[in-house]
Amino acid sequence: MTALTATGLGKRYRRSWALRDCSLAVPAGRVVALVGPNGAGKTTLLHLAVGLLRPTTGSVSVLGMPAGEALSRVAVLAQDKPLYDGFTVAEMLRFGRRLNPRWDHELAAKRIEELKIPLNRKVGKLSGGQQTQVALTVVLAKRPELLLLDEPLANLDPLARHDVMRGLMSAVADTGMTVLLSSHVVSDLENTCDYLVVLNGGRVQVSGDIEELLAGHRLLTGPADLADGVAARLTTVDDTRTDRQATMLIRGEPDALDPRWTARGVGLEELVLAYLRRPDSSTLPRPALASA
Amino acid sequence: MFWLTVRQYRMQLIVTAAVLAAIGVVLLVHSITTRNAMAGLSGDALDQVVGDRVALMHSLVTWLPAAPALVGLFWGAPLVAREIENGTHLLAWTQSVPRRRWLAVKVAVLAGAVTLCGLALGAIVTGWVGTFEGTPFAYKFSDYGIFAVSGVAAAGWWLFAFMLGTAAGALTRKLLPALVVTLAVFFVAVFVLFQLRENYAEPERIVAPAAQAATAQDADAMPVESNWVGPDGKEIAGAVEGCDGDASTYLACVQGKGYKGVTYVQPPDRYWRFQWTEAGILAAAAVLLGGVAYQRVSRRAL
Q1: What is the mean pLDDT of residues A128-147?
Q2: Which one, of A171, A131, A129, lies nearest residue A147 by Cα?
Q3: Contact A57/A37 with Cβ under 8 angstroms?
Q4: Is residue A25 within a helix (H) or strand (E), and if so which, with residue range?
Q5: Does the pLDDT at position A291 exceed 80?
Q6: At residue B154, does pLDDT exceed 50?
Q7: Strand blocks (E) in A74-223
Q8: Has domain A2-208 been given CATH number 3.30.40.10?
Q9: Is the terminal CB of chain A with fewer CB neighbours within 10 Å at N or C?
Q10: Do residues B231 and B258 touch, judged by C-beta distance below 8 A?
Q11: Residues in chain B whose beta carbon is closer than 8 A to a beta carbon of chain A?
Q12: Do B90 and A82 touch (CB under 8 A)?
């Protein structure tokens, strides 16, 4: 079963496409990193998935239902962590309880207590980290099967980032829900995510299991004068050269190489950066719709 | 949803109730003291006293027809616009309650509250005007403003203004433009409907001798048109040819030529019929505006 399926999904704002020809299947039970530079279409994709936006082209379904119809089974934490500033923390939880039939009040109350956030404090008076925690509590207590988080760690200090991530991961371990987590900072997502989707310029560039992706790529380093020959034989994702040295990210295992070349494994951040530098490279089949 | 609506509109509910209570107390006290002052008086002495007493409340009552504008600004406009402006629509519309129901419950609860408040104001003003029954100051029908804030028309105006604000907020999605649109459209609506009111029914035609033409109708009748009608039965709108001079010589001249005054008026016993007509027009407009808001919130891609 897939938690989120997009088919030829596109969204155009007045003049430009925020998301274009996006086809994607996110398997259930994964913690998915949705990575891309600012303006890559991450937020647009998440808003389309919960029906806040209507697609210009194509379609998107979540948990086997058209977007917007599975509202009680999907939770989304928007980028600015919207909360009602004039509400107290207790009222914010009451809001969640009144609007969600599957609301887990025990979970919410326990989380807030563990975080030592005063229930009678106005939300607007909390620190940024506490506000994020309250917003996260509201989405977690909804008991969603799919949780969408839009840049949940933005504007948080390192300690708060750690706390938020830890809270999230323990909730995932408890419930087995699918999480789709967007970020433009890859290091936030290492060690927590097991599936990667790279969105760039409104298109899906990479989509796959992180372990498989890492195992399927090698970073080659060798003399620049031999690089053309090597590049011709292999599928290169990214190719950076100086006068003397060439560094190439390749897909698959290299065949017998000249001994002056070294091959090593690749880290998540290196992999993502290599793809982002080369928007034409893709782990996916070339899109059939070449003309616009 | 009911709890959320009441929580988010706590301030508006409290302030509106307090203001209504204050107006109620002021007008009630005024009514009681006026009744006491009227006791035992009659004729010119009575008119003199009532006239002075009514003048006391004039500035308050004159402004009451503008009160629905505040309802549009503080109740209607923020409903959708403030959520979108603060980004909290991303929170409100991604809970388990579909957007359409979110809007339907909010509008139903608040429209109900606003209508009740309007009815309360209508009852207060109707009661107050009733004090002057039998004097020339019971202008609840011919006075544009008092008609709009008494009876059921008051509730119509409040409901209309609320839905106008809501629709404006849903269309502009920003609070400030929504406030501007609400105010502008409200005052246009006031202007249009106040002009239109005399056409709610076919007016009554009263023919009277020229000298009595101006006073032939009931003091609280709504004047529509007045003409001269000649011996040949033809009506003329302007001055009678061949007559001029000051008022009394002119009238004598007109009468001498066989002209009579003809006035078209809405008699004051049509008060309730007109009240329901105005309330009906406003309620219909409110329903239309509700449809606009519903359409914008449920269909429109944000």
Answers
A1: 93
A2: A171
A3: no
A4: strand A17-27
A5: no
A6: yes
A7: 74-77, 146-150, 178-183, 195-200, 203-209, 217-223
A8: no
A9: C
A10: yes
A11: 1, 3-4, 7-8, 86-91, 93-98, 301-302
A12: yes
User: Does B97 contact A71 at a Cβ distance shorter than 8 Å?
Assistant: yes
The gap between the terminal CA atoms of chain B, to the nearest Å, is: 22
Taking the CA of residue A258 and the nearest CA in chain B, the distance in Å comes to 56
A152 min Cα distance to partner chain B (Å): 14
CB B291 within 8 A of CB B167: no
Interior CA angle at B295 toward B291 and B296, to 5°?
120
Q: Which token pair is A40?
A: 């890559």
* Tokens matching residue A217: 């790529």
Give me the count of residues in chain B.
Answer: 302
Rounded CA separation B260/B135 (Å)? 28
Tell me the two tokens of residue B91.
């929170």
Q: How far lies B63's CA from each of A71, B77, B165, in Å?
A: 46, 21, 20
> From the centroid of its chain, how far is CA A241?
30
d(CA B162, CA B70): 9
Largest separation between any pair of C-alpha atoms in chain B:
82
DSSP lists the bridge partners of residue A88 as A122
Give the pLDDT of residue A196: 93
**What is the residue whose two structure tokens read 């599975």?**
A70
Residue A289's pLDDT band (boundaries 50, 70, 90)?
A: very low
Q: What is the CA radius of gyration of chain A?
A: 21
Q: Mind listing the pLDDT tens digit for each residue in A249-269?
A: 888 887 777 788 888 889 899
The token pair that represents B125 in the structure block = 């003003």
DSSP B66-96: GHHHHHIIIIIHHHHHHHHHHTTHHHHTTSS
pTM (predicted TM-score): 0.89
The reply to whether residue B91 touches residue A94, judged by beta carbons under 8 angstroms, is no
State the amino acid at position A1 in one-letter form. M
Nearest to A100 among B8, B87, B96 (CB): B96
**Any B CB within 8 A of A142 CB:** yes
Nearest to B265 by CA among B206, B200, B219: B206
Q: Give the best residue of B95, B102, B297 to mutate against chain A (max A CB count within 10 A).
A: B95
Token pair, residue A1, equals 């079963």
- What is the tens place of the pLDDT at every residue in B231-258? 888 888 878 887 887 888 888 888 888 8
pLDDT: which is higher, A164 or B216: A164
Q: Where are the domains of chain A?
A: 2-208, 216-277
Judge whether B68 and B157 are in contact, CB under 8 Å.
yes
Establish how many alpha carbons lie within 13 A of residue B113's alpha carbon, considering only the half-sphere containing its beta carbon: 21
d(CA A51, CA B93): 9
pLDDT tens for B125-141 read 999 999 988 888 888 89
What are B25's two structure tokens?
A: 């107390």
Cα dihedral sign for B62, B68, B71, B72? negative
A33/A182 Cα distance (integer angstroms): 6
